[in-house]
From TrEMBL:
GO terms, biological process: glutathione metabolic process
UniProt KW keywords: Hydrolase
GO cellular component: cytosol
Protein's name according to its UniProt entry: N-methylhydantoinase A
Pfam families: Hydant_A_N, Hydantoinase_A
Domain Hydantoinase A/oxoprolinase: 206-484
Hydrolase is among the record's keywords: yes
Family matches, as PANTHER family: 5-OXOPROLINASE RELATED, HYPOTHETICAL 5-OXOPROLINASE (EUROFUNG)-RELATED
Domain Hydantoinase/oxoprolinase N-terminal, chain residue ranges per copy: 18-186
Source species: Mariprofundus aestuarium
UniProt signal peptide: none
Length: 666
């Protein structure tokens, strides 16, 4: 396996960096030290994710005290998805107690006359309205009643609340009332204040984000403290949803920022691979054991402030990643109409798919790939776990019987269904946003991605697939590439043609950068400035980079609007939010170029694949730059398997990435 080097930084070569990505089925490890890269996988331990990390460090033969550990955690995500956060009290203004339940009143199914009722994600008894109000300019029009806040401690004790979220109207302009309330709260509860979590307009999104931060904050804090105490690494950092890393001791207070902690690492690594290969336009496809994450990159991955998790909005800047419940562990079932279905329920790490031999009885997508031979019978999951093909065959015999299908036919049907789910997700981030997939290359990673990448590319009319080095632990690799950074924002409505606009913006940016310097003490920070702009009367905004001149800012916004919507509006433009990204410059991780070999590729074995006959096995470690091979073939490594079907040709790049291209057989 080629080494990973860091350019222009010899000081890094003596250090040991361990990237760890905790997934629903496997926990991935990428170790970088002076000798290069090592990859490793452990079955995840959902009941306590730290156990898999400890076990992986032991099995890698490492001393945790020597490590700079960068972690992608699913603790916050899982708590939100499974509704297993702590008992949380939401405090807002009197009369706004139902803001989180009412939401935006948007209808997901516009033409359904009898839509299914959505379950409330917060109970009315957990929402408290207090006196006091600020106006739209941040001036107090009603003070907080002291008697109201004096009774808060008793309410919290009686309700058994472990966390409190406070979201007052226009607190992003004046936080005085939120600070008053915070001072009256008991010291032993987790406190989340909206002006600290998201100092932006839109009460629903700000309130929901603040609530989620409180809902998962104690869990994240406890987990990270236990991890730091148990392992005692030199440094512990956590990847956050915007693609940067933050110190673990500050991550607990900003727990909601970890909602896309793991998938963000994959996009950070994908951007680096795209730059290296000169492929700026990428559709990323990350298929793990539990879920599939897809995104679109045009030079840089898109950011959004309109994400949702389990139907709950998060207004923080996050990488724009679309996730569906389709992975190697997705369970198969038969619906009421007698038709085969796949997911979203997953076998997870325990018991896992039937072929893991850990007590699973319902077949999953991994079992289907094993039955079809796309995972060869002699394969070892994570390089060491034997797979029970006979058990998978028996499970698909039972599954296929009511459908009138043999085990292989049933497995093939399952694969086709799963691939339709995944190609639908790729269309969401491309076709539905005005992009033609044929103009992009598909960058496939994740432990199961290589088994389906070529089929998905064909369905989308794409002709190129990139299977990068470390594809089976790619998100963990991205942990090593992330820079230390944090996002800061503040809303203030300013007409762009206001003569005071330049000075007002400079003051806002200076304030945000001072906040960043205070929150990231001791670091040599650089800053990126951006603004949310909209035409007057619009309910949405576009984010553009700050320009030296207001005329340049106006033109940047108009260009972005034409690109997004195809037209301009003859209306004045207004500034809604100023944004600052504070980051620490660091050298970029790069793969070195490898020496080529004239040696002809020798298959390491052969096995049968459904519909393709006997196909050769190629060991990825044997593939040197310049070597090429046409499908059908299986390319094997410890952390993943690549199915190269007929009609596709593979060539190894100088950095060890596999470049796949579809060709006309005729």
């Amino acid at each position: 396996m080629p080494a990973l080097v860091i350019t222009n930084s010899d000081s890094y070569n003596a250090a040991m960096f361990l990237g760890v990505d905790t997934g629903g089925t496997f926990t991935d490890f990428v170790l970088f030290d002076s000798s290069g890269l090592r990859f490793h996988k452990e079955l995840s331990t959902p009941e306590d994710p730290s156990r898999a990390i400890e076990l992986g460090i032991v099995n890698l033969g490492l001393n945790a005290g020597d490590l700079h550990l960068i972690h992608g955690s699913t603790v916050a995500t899982n708590a939100i998805l499974e509704r297993k956060g702590v008992n949380t009290l939401f405090i807002t203004n009197r009369g706004l107690e139902d803001v989180l339940t009412i939401g935006r009143q948007t209808r997901e199914e516009l033409y359904t006359l009898t839509p299914a009722a959505k379950a409330d994600w917060i109970a009315r008894r957990d929402c408290l309205g207090l006196s006091g109000r600020m106006d739209a300019n941040g001036f107090e029009i009603e003070p907080v009643d002291i008697q109201d806040i004096e009774g808060l401690a008793e309410i919290i004790v009686q309700g058994g609340y472990r966390a409190v979220a406070v979201c007052q109207l226009f607190s992003f302009l004046n936080e005085f009332h939120e600070q008053q309330i915070a001072k009256a709260l008991p010291e032993d509860v987790f406190i989340s204040l909206s002006h600290q979590v998201l100092a932006e307009y839109r009460e629903y999104e700000r309130g929901a984000t603040t609530y989620l931060n409180a809902y998962v904050g104690p869990l994240v804090q406890r987990y990270l403290k236990r991890l730091a105490y148990t392992l005692r690494p030199k440094h512990l950092f956590v990847m956050h949803s915007a693609g940067g890393v933050m110190a673990a001791d500050s991550a607990g207070a900003q727990a909601v920022k970890l909602a896309l902690s793991g998938p963000a690492g994959g996009l950070v690594a994908a951007e680096a691979i795209g730059r290296q290969l000169g492929e700026p336009n990428l559709l990323t496809f990350d298929m793990g054991g539990t879920s599939t994450d897809v995104a679109l990159i045009q030079g840089k991955a898109a950011m959004t402030t309109e994400s949702e998790i389990a139907g709950i909005p998060i207004g923080l800047p996050m990488l724009d990643i679309h996730t569906i419940g389709a992975g190697g562990g997705s369970l198969v079932w038969i619906d009421e109409a007698g038709l085969p279905q796949v997911g979203p329920e997953s076998a997870g790490a325990s018991p896992g798919p039937v072929c893991y031999g850990q007590g699973g009885t319902t077949p999953a997508v991994t079992d289907a790939n094993l039955v079809l031979g796309r995972i060869p019978p002699m394969a070892r999951m994570a390089g060491r776990m034997e797979l029970d093909r006979e058990a998978a065959l028996a499970a698909f015999d039972a599954y296929g019987e009511p459908l009138g299908l043999s085990s292989e036919e049933a497995a093939h049907a399952v694969i086709r269904i799963a691939e339709e789910h995944m190609v639908g997700a790729l269309r969401v981030v491309s076709v539905q946003r005005g992009h033609n997939p044929e103009d992009f290359s598909l960058l496939s990673f994740g432990g199961a991605g290589g088994l389906h990448a070529c089929a998905l590319a064909e369905k989308l009319g794409m002709s190129k697939v990139i299977f990068p080095l470390a594809s089976g632990a790619f998100s963990a690799l991205g942990m090593l590439a992330g820079r230390q950074q944090s996002e800061f924002s503040r809303s203030r409505r300013i007409a762009i043609d206001d003569v005071d606009a330049p000075s007002l913006l400079q003051a806002m940016f200076a304030e945000l950068e001072q906040e960043a310097a205070s929150g990231m003490q001791g670091l040599n920070l650089s800053y990126e400035r951006r603004l949310d702009l909209r035409y007057v009367g619009q309910g949405f905004h576009l984010t553009v980079a700050m320009q030296d001149e207001m005329s340049g800012l106006i033109e940047s916004f108009k260009t972005a609007h034409r690109c997004a919507y195809g037209h301009d509006l003859g209306r004045p433009i207004e500034i809604m939010t100023a944004r600052v990204t504070a980051f620490v410059d660091r050298p970029e991780l790069e793969f070195p170029q490898l020496s080529s070999s004239d040696k002809e590729i020798e298959p390491s074995g052969y096995s049968a694949v459904y519909g393709a006959g006997e196909v050769p096995h190629l060991q990825r470690s044997d593939l040197r730059p310049g070597c090429a091979f046409s499908g059908p073939a299986l390319i094997l490594e410890d952390t993943s398997t690549l199915w190269l079907p007929d009609g596709w040709r593979m060539q190894a790049s100088v950095h060890g990435h596999l470049l796949l291209e579809r060709y006309d057989e005729h």
